[in-house]
Amino acid sequence: MALSRRCLLLISLVAMTAVIGTSEFSMTKCYPTSTPTVNGRGAFHRSLLSLLDDLPHAAARTGFASMRTGGAFARGLCFGDPAPGPCLVCLSDAGGKIAGQCGNASRRAGFLNDGCFLGYADTKASSDDIDIGAVTFSGDSVRGIEAVVDVLEFLDVVHSLVPLSADGWVPTADGTAMASNGDTVRVLAQCAMDLTAAECARCLLNDSVPRMVASWVLTTADGVQVQGKGSVAAVLGSNCYLRLEISAPPRREKIRRIVKDHIVLTVLSCFVVAAAIGALVAHVCCLVMRKARN
User: Could you list the residue ranges that cross the membrane (predicted)?
Assistant: First the structure.
């Protein structure tokens, strides 16, 4: 049972930032000074540069790190359980960009691309709560999520992955769901390793799932549907990552699943085909017998 149109309309009102079409993007968000500067902007900036230099190496092995140097706090999260090398490169590149764009004028900022998130602030609470996120689509074009995937089944799969994703139990948890047309849907979920189970559930279920559904089938106030295109959809954020991959099975397996899921229609179709063949054979026999009599 898919979500109702009213539910989708409500979900589409969720505040979000969506990037549709390509997964290659970057986003930077700089906040104004949030607290009085005790040691001067120069001291904070020096601490920040040192922190942004050390954090990628600390996060590369596990894909996540949260660190403090002087009065600067920073967090880094690499998406999708990457190898240490790509994670190090992504966070190092993010550190250079965020420092160049925000470091001299802001004491709180976040940088996001399709490979990782990096954020800093002058308090730990502020660094844990950087509001930045995006939804990306890539791969071959497919129908909207409501037409392909049972949204409630998708929600159940994500819910089952939360205990594995929380408290750093595994870097990335994944599960599968079945699409209505027989395609396989792989769901990948990841939470920052310092999130509790409740915080991980809120990030994945209360934030990421509605963002993905609302972006894939976005019902506007005028009733016009804007569909995200692509067989891969990902919700990127500062505390969690959710990815959905749709892949078609081999043709023989797909046919078997269609027959199994539509057994009544299959039997009826076979009966019609058999009747048509029988009628054709009877007609040919009549023609042969008539020729023989003549």
Answer: 263-289
CB contact set of 103 (below 8 Å; sequence gap of 6+): 45, 48, 49, 109
Q: What is the pLDDT of residues 121-146, one digit of tens each?
A: 988 888 888 889 998 888 777 666 66
Identical topology for domains 5-17+140-247 and 26-131: yes
The CATH number of 5-17+140-247 is 3.30.430
* Phi, psi for residue 188 in degrees, rounded to 5: -120, 130
The C-alpha atoms of residue 66 and residue 277 are separated, in whole angstroms, by: 71
Average pLDDT in the chain = 76
CATH of domain 26-131: 3.30.430.20
Domain boundaries, the chain: 5-17+140-247, 26-131, 262-293
Show contacts of 168-173: CB within 8 Å, 24+ apart. Answer: 168/62, 168/64, 168/193, 168/194, 171/62, 171/63, 171/64, 171/81, 172/63, 172/80, 172/81, 172/241
